Predict the 3D structure of the following.
Amino acid sequence: MIEAMGCVDHPFFARSSIKALQAIPLLEEGAADALGFTDEELSLALASHNAEACHTNTVSALLARLDLSVADLQCGAQEPGDREVRMALVNSGEETTALHNNCSGKHAGFLALSKHLDAPASDYLDPDGAVQSLVRAAISDMCGMDAGSLTRGMDGCSAPTYRLPLRALGLAFARVVEPSGLEPKRRAACEQMVAAVAAHPILIAGSRGRLCTELSRVTKGRLFPKIGAEGIYAVGDRASGRALAVKIDDGGRRALHAVVVELLSRHEMIDEAEARALESWRQTELTNHAGLSVGRTEVVA
Amino acid sequence: MIEAMGCVDHPFFARSSIKALQAIPLLEEGAADALGFTDEELSLALASHNAEACHTNTVSALLARLDLSVADLQCGAQEPGDREVRMALVNSGEETTALHNNCSGKHAGFLALSKHLDAPASDYLDPDGAVQSLVRAAISDMCGMDAGSLTRGMDGCSAPTYRLPLRALGLAFARVVEPSGLEPKRRAACEQMVAAVAAHPILIAGSRGRLCTELSRVTKGRLFPKIGAEGIYAVGDRASGRALAVKIDDGGRRALHAVVVELLSRHEMIDEAEARALESWRQTELTNHAGLSVGRTEVVA
């Protein structure tokens, strides 16, 4: 570990930041290959998406190819995170469904793995079922932890989730972007995920207001980023093999983007030109309801 | 001061929690009387409302009586805070305007005072104009502070706002609910505001998901409550003349309601029956997108 600030050993629920770890078995077990996953579909399996058409259409098509449908998703309905998309949905009169849930791609990935393993589709979230057992093992291995010692909880999307210390999240992301020390199938899985996201930055998040998409795009896929609820962020740097893992203590998102970009800059995981392109995420002007400037957020050492 | 926890002397922007103080000149200067304010309109002048029909209709009618309109409000358009109201608005095709802004009643009150003072309506937010000078003086007096030493900022609704320490907010609320030591006109102003809110708890906030409305309703108007953005809450107790002022350090609302109800209970500002009626605000079950229970929030000593 290069540098630590604060409580890097205190475990917390990593939420969506570990989606790439949760998707490893989909690839490792040969399910993605056998089922003809495109890079777009793989990106959706790793995504916390905005429910734009590119997201829901891809997940929908994937489910159909699995002879499944929205009805098989157990993540629950969730309104699109993007305001424009949300308004369009309301105006269209279309109902909000599990497809719009930001995790629907992840769940479609679980269902694909379940099908490949010949496990009952309805059991894909069973913590001790075929799918989630593999997922738990992948998470613990990549984090350098003992699967049996992980504290489990239930995520917002109903998937099993685990408490991990920041140190472990950072280690896992470093391994994802520099997988040469991993077993061949896992190494290939990591390389494939990272390449897919680099090629499709919009698919892991969305076209508006999403730092994950911007970090990948601005760095031409060199950075492999993932946000998690409650102020979590992890970024792997393919060039250096280093990773950054951040958790905002109070769980608020307000500080998160600014801190991530500031730390990427300080640790030279982004160059000056990239830092300039990302400046609005690091130092944000605050405007009020009348559009007047009332202050700003900035990172203080 | 009965009890202090944390930084009670560190000033912060009190946001909407001081609306009652900002409304004092409206009453004290005789504007509310001269313009025939109803208790409903006075409640709206103190409100952070949900933009339900009872709110927007009252503000709209008040503006009309002043020979003014939505166009004279400088608070800016803001979507209704209540989801049902927001969805209904979108579905109706009606535009979001300054009338829906949670502060529109406060601004209508400022406009009423401006009219009474024969000041130009367009100047009602000028920090050194007739209206805001009186407002600043009322805030500083009630808080036991020197008007000249207040740090000023611009609120979300563009009104001038000031940094106050928690200690001062508590003092001001104690004076509002126990005004016997104040000058006669100010005492009458406080009594009138407190009575108006007691009679119309829905008007200061709204019918759904609003602790202010519930605290007033459950205590039959004995408590005089006001929330402020960034995790602020103040409550005056008419029975004891005591007040509680709270600020959540990280500005998050998640802890606010629970802490307020817990402290009201501990300090016997609500009795056991009232505490039971407010229990769901104090200890909240967390459910995920599928409606499954995933945890809870509770106050730990």
In short: Chain B touches chain A at residues 74-78, 87, 90-91, 101, 153-158, 249-252, 254, 288-292, 294-295 (CB under 8 Å). Chain B has 14 helices and eight strands. The mean pLDDT of chain B is 96. The first strand of chain B starts at residue 12 and ends at 13.
